[in-house]
UniProtKB/TrEMBL annotation:
Its EC number is 2.6.1.-. This is Aminotransferase. It is an enzyme of class 2 (transferase). InterPro entries: Aminotransferase_I/II_large (IPR004839), NHTrfase_class1_PyrdxlP-BS (IPR004838), PyrdxlP-dep_Trfase (IPR015424), PyrdxlP-dep_Trfase_major (IPR015421), PyrdxlP-dep_Trfase_small (IPR015422). It comes from Herbinix luporum. It comes from the Bacteria.
């Protein structure tokens, strides 16, 4: 018998993955070109060429025992130093290598920080809609995820509801901007107000509340929008970053945590995160790709390719009668389902070989997520199906 806890995880296992598997099944029946799989956030834009060059350079020029060997559990010192300097240059911060912990992607980083912070029963607040894996990550450490209901007008966080949801048990708040699944970037005004509420509540309860900024999409923004760097707005901020999307490297499993010196219990937290990395079984973030990304800190994927997809899909769907906030970043559209039951609506879309994920998977029923990190031509081929689907609902 597997453990009860694992049984529960398996039973609620990701709806997104299930849809991805369904896509493969349909492709076998109808041919891959006639199936429109918008289910998974797997980058479609190639990694920048600098990555390949950096990998070759590391392999050719660096000591193999160092490149493939164990290191400090927090990562190579020189890599962390380069990342700190790059952040300081871009965001006018003041980090050193001691503030950076290399992680196994954003997922690894979130697990490391939650393991370091949570006691059983501690509450972690997040805002719907949210990346569904937060439920599992918080549950891994017997925490309790508290979900602030969505503000479906703008998909900015509902701060009144947020304030009400903070209790003496609140240990952390996870925010994600640019957001998966809405593509919305939380405004500076939102961030300032959120920080003010947190400071007030820290005083009221006489305890620290940590803000965890999960930001794998930071670099994927459109129309030159700026994404505020949260450590500058609230002292108890920890940043979780990943190269999965910004450099299209999700399989390489590489990212980092930033734990600024201003964080209460800074030294204890850095020490805990270092040990958490080891005892969670990662031991350290993968070595070769650590060394390669350190050479590519200013490299970028071509965001214009995602932007073209965004414009094509958004403009057409709106013209067919769908409702959606235009995404400002990431590569997702979060569209109002044309009936209340988002799961049923996703099933109806599947009849047109269109695979999309019900909003319930993100704590926001009544919507569906369309991941447009796909081939432009596939979007074009899928549009008639979206149009017919809208017509079936009388649009
Ligand atoms: N956080 C968010 C909001 C995501 O969308 C994802 C992946 O899609 C992750 C974390 C996990 O990213 P990684 O592949 O870096 O672990």
């Amino acid at each position: 018998m597997i453990s009860d806890k694992m049984k529960a995880f398996v039973n609620s296992s990701s709806a997104i993955r299930a849809m991805f598997e369904e896509g493969k099944r349909l492709a076998e029946i109808y041919g891959a070109e006639n199936v429109y799989d918008f289910s998974l956030g797997n980058p479609s834009v190639e990694p920048p060429s600098e990555i390949k060059e950096a990998l070759i350079e590391v392999l050719n020029e660096e000591n193999p025992n160092m490149v493939h060997g164990y290191m400090n559990n927090s990562g190579y010192e020189d890599v962390r130093e380069k990342i700190a300097l790059s952040l300081n240059k871009r965001f006018d911060t003041n980090f050193g290598l001691e503030n950076i912990i290399m992680t196994v992607g954003a997922a690894g980083g979130l697990n490391v920080i939650l393991k370091s912070l949570l006691n059983p029963g501690d509450e972690v607040i997040t805002f719907a809609p949210f990346f569904g894996e937060y439920r599992n990550y918080v549950s891994n450490y017997d925490g309790h995820l508290v979900i602030v209901p969505p503000n479906c007008e703008t998909f900015q966080p509902d701060l009144e509801e947020f304030e009400k949801s903070i209790t003496a048990k609140t240990k952390a708040v996870i925010i994600n901007s640019p957001n998966n699944p809405t593509g919305v970037v939380y405004s500076e005004d939102t961030i300032c107000k959120l920080a003010k509420i947190l400071n007030r509540k820290q005083q009221e309860y006489n305890k620290s509340i940590y803000l965890i900024s999960d930001e794998p999409y930071r670099e994927l923004v459109y129309d030159d929008l700026e994404v505020p760097y949260l450590t500058k707005y609230y002292d108890n901020t920890i940043v979780g970053y990943s190269y999965s999307k910004s450099l299209s490297l999700p399989g390489e499993r590489i990212g980092y945590l930033v734990i600024p010196g201003e964080v209460d219990i800074y030294e204890d937290l850095v020490a805990a995160a270092n040990v958490a990395t080891r005892i969670l079984g990662f031991v350290n973030a993968p070595s070769l790709i650590q060394r390669a990304v350190a050479k590519c800190l200013e490299a970028k994927v071509d965001v214009e390719i995602y932007n073209r997809n965004r414009e094509l899909l958004y403009n057409n769907l709106v013209s067919y009668g769908y409702e959606c906030v235009k995404p400002q970043g990431a590569f997702y559209l979060f569209v109002k389902a044309l009936e209340q039951d988002d799961k049923k609506f996703a099933q109806e879309a599947k009849k047109h070989n269109i695979l999309i994920v019900p909003g319930s998977a993100f704590g926001c029923p009544g919507y569906v997520r369309i991941a447009y990190c796909v081939d432009y031509e596939m979007i074009k081929r899928a549009l008639p199906g979206f149009e017919k689907l809208a017509k079936e609902y009388g649009r």
